[in-house]
Hints:
Distance between the termini of chain A: 51 Å
Number of strands of chain A: 15
Radius of gyration of chain B: 27 Å
Oligomer: heterodimer
Strand order of the largest sheet of chain A: 2-11-10-9-8-6-3
Shape of chain A: globular
Number of strands of chain B: 14
Distance between the termini of chain B: 53 Å
Shape of chain B: elongated
Amino acid sequence: MFPEAAQCLKTAAPFFPKTASLKDLRRLCSHGGAGHVQASRHFGVSRPLTAKVLPPHKPRERVEIPGLEMVTYGERMHFVPGLSKPVNPRWERDYKDPRYYKAPPAHEMALFKEKPCFVYNQRTSALGGLRQALWLTKTKLIPGLPPQLLSLTESPANQIPDQDERVQNAIKHARFWDTTEERPGKEKYSNTLLFNLLHLCATLQSRHPAIGRRILSEKYSLAATWKRGEDLFQIRGQNGFLHNCMDPLPEVSGKEEVGYTAEHVLETLYPVSPTIDLQQVHVYKEQLNCTGFRGDYPYPHAHTLYFLDGADARYKLQPEQFRAKMLMFAFGNALVRAHTIYGTQPQPVLDRPITVQAIGTNGRIFQFLVLQLNTTDLSGDDGIKNQVWLDENVELYDFAKVRPLIKKKQVKVPAGLTGYKPEVFSKFLALYLHGAV
Amino acid sequence: MAARTRLSLLFPKKLPPLRNQRLAHTEAAAKKPAYPPVVPSLTAKSKSARSRQVEEQVKKICDSPVEGKLSLITRIHRRKFVVYPQTFARNADRWYQHFTKTAYIPGLPEKFTPERKTEAGESAPPAADQTTVLGDDRDAFADIRSLVSRVILQEHWHTTKRKPFLYREQEQMVGPFLRSLVTGLNHSLAKYNPLFRLSSLDIAPKVNFYWRRGQRIIPKGHQRGRQEPIRFQIDDQPQCQIRITQQLQQFAPLEASYAAEVPEVTYAPNLMPMFRRQYDNHIFTGAKLPDPACYGHTQFHLVPDRYHRDRMARQQLSDQVEVFLRANALASLFAWTGAQAMYQGFWNHEDVTRPFVSQAVITDGHFFSFFCYQLNTVALSVETDANNPRKNLLWGTESLRLYESVQDGEVVGLNDDVIKLLVQFLMNQP
């Protein structure tokens, strides 16, 4: 049941009889998102539906006076006016029943710690956006994708035959042809478009067999821990699709450039604290690092993460926060793998920087991100920083309309796909082929 | 007609020479009729008027383009039986065979039978065995085998997952496995099967089909006593499917289906049990008409928890497991091939000129069943079925086990024959 409905149930329980409560309360609590509550039947007319919900009734406070024994009606086995109610010792079930389990308060849990930990999960919408993410991960932002990556698709061997036509067909399939209705919804088409583009890119496997050494995994739970300043940070959650690879990605920038990042100064969010909007928890495991896979996984290296903007309609993120999420989870994946290779002790410089890519889309607008993890020593603000190349808000096409937009009897935007930009798919393909060419 | 006979009675002998003259010289220039043809009325309240209306409608549909045909055929909504490919009904495969005029042939068509492989055998060069499957590369099969085992291990061993909720096990554990397997095989085999480079891979697409078969007498209402065609609708959602731009070759010639036997069920469809509803009539292959990949290659279906063989065994329905798989393949593939045929403009009154062929693999994670379907006729309604000797054909295997279990990061008991058959299925090309 919806949590709001459960709350209403608790508050209204003493007033509404059980028979009517469940169905009618769904009607009463008008829920913003799930507006498809069926009209419930109301046959009985002897009780009102729209009564005022009174606040919960607190039981009278029992005063214990030391030395004074309360005379109760417990021994007499029936209520006697004037005597107090007997207090029975708390009864605990001697076996474990998951239906009737009440969690102890936070300070009584085994993993409770005084020092809080700030957790970034898949629903976090960080106020500082990308700047906050850059500060938290000690990263330097370089706008635009690295040139050696973009040059990958210039040679015809790395291009798909009839590329433009096939990409346009893929977009039309995702936006128009995938449903019996007039048009598919945003969640559906962004998902289909991503899979269609990946399917297109994978047709190059006959030319570049290294593409076959990758696998896509859908629901993996990431967990990474690091210290920044005096605070402990964690990234946790299922965030999207991950392309795992048997071979690591080559590093994007050489040792010189990595050395130059030491001079870069991170932008602070003063007066806003960099821990804003992060979930503060006191019950956590220290040194929690989990890639989402256990055992001797044949694909240990992370290649690309794919994020869908409209995946969860309840937790929609603004573009800035979406880019921050991409950066944080790419960083989390890189950090976890650095911890497995180099150990959990902070390393000022990694011998082989770890590169992770991320692509985020809402079905039309793409964000491309390449992160290179150069250091795991994130406590201080100085020293070598990590690098991120970001290409933001690139539109794959302008409009994909089922019916033309007509204003004042003039066709402003025709029906069908308009404004297709081929260079955006070249960037997608370049990120896909990186490491396999 | 009456005028002509009267004329011949009046002038019996003078007509032949005139007729001969006409035949000899003026065949092409027909005598212009003085009056328009005498046909039954279009708007009268008579049976001949009704039949003329039907003829006009049929002619209108035949003359319109494919989109127009589809919209005219599916225009009117009436109550129809909703056929569920995955059903709890007993002996559903016999019922579905009757509804779709399909004959079931156990085993696979000659293209996939193991006899060809055992001829190549072990004494003759085993490379010939592999050449029938994958070209010249022996290592290619080893690669595919290792890919399959890695995919199994990823889903069942390596990925940290929570214990699946009640009746969500197939969806959470086997669904991703099947999707990864299909995508992995599709991409690896694109090298050997050039069709896949232009193919389209759909994840959880919708496949719908609407058709009419048989007649019933309306029991009550203002049309009581009259005949009404029985309408069916299939709304299917396979786990994933591969659509291609060229049509696959037929498994058996059209004439071979004349001898096949289709079981007849004399009971009304609602006794199956099957229920009627009235809503949009959809005919859909997985993508709309303008999509270039309009022909089907292979569908992959997942057996849900409700029909898993362990649960069926608990309900003492172990014999229905194979029946369920057959019914599922039959309904899904009939819907898919039927929709493909309709997309090419063939319908009830314009029967298919070439057979439409598709394949399906149904699995519950451990057991795989392979099915091939050949659609020879779409003319299933009462008017067109009277003199139609063609039947649709379904070939199918029993369930074959892919692997025993996963223990300590290793797949135990991986069956190579099943992998070979899967690869053969995917390598099917015209």
